[in-house]
Amino acid sequence: MPAYSALIFDLDGTLIDSAPDIAAALNAGFARNGWPELDPAYVERFIGNGPHRLIRDILDDKGIAHDEAAVARAFDGYLRAYLDDPAGRTRFFDHVREDLGALHAAGVRLGICTNKNHAVTGKVLSQLGLDGLFEAAIGADAVPACKPDPGHLRAVAAAMDLTPGTWAYVGDTRVDQATAAAAGVPFYVVPWGGGAEVAVPAGHRLTRLADLLQHGRKASAAE
User: Fold this and answer.
1) The domain 19-84 belongs to what CATH superfamily?
2) What tens digit of pLDDT does each residue of 74-94 get?
3) Are 28 and 80 in contact (CB under 8 A)?
4) Where are the domains of the chain?
5) pTM for this one?
6) DSSP code of 5?
7) Over the stretch 5-16, which tens digit does the pLDDT of each residue have?
8) Which residues are catalytic?
9) 223 pLDDT more than 60
10) Is the dihedral of CA 112, 113, 114, 119 positive or negative?
């Protein structure tokens, strides 16, 4: 028997390595203002708080002067480019595709809570052939406040009609961890993305998603 009857996942850095596509879209937006081109490895450091915060954090880190109009131009260019090619460079992390299939086959209900734009989220899942696996997938701009606000995660749980105590959240960042803590649900961290930087109790660090078929039950019993 699976440890949980349902699991909600973060997307970027948890299920997929989308940094190359995010960087390409971001560079399209930055080009509108004559801002410098960004390397995907650099962009990856700032992923997790949604596109508006991503743009502002990078501008602040690089010391690039900007106003609201420039940020709006960059965001518009980013979104247009991302919607045009949302997953051409994106890849799954190791065993993720097969493990999602195994969880689904075992009867585990699956959802997505991501700070990615909602429309882009749907296109990414469709392009990667994942849209049929998830009962609900809610992006940052489809809720009043996105992660780390627990309302974002609760909105996904509500859309799936989940019962408290029967599900957990899986992510790769401290933002994901804080979201789960604020929502009062168990949190598991993946070993890739930003997962190595997130401190979790013994039993809550995954080696792969398939661990959740049994691993979560043992961890819950030890808490």
Assistant:
1) Putative phosphatase; domain 2 (1.10.150.240)
2) 999 999 999 999 999 999 999
3) yes
4) 6-17+90-222, 19-84
5) 0.90
6) S
7) 999 999 999 999
8) 10
9) no
10) positive
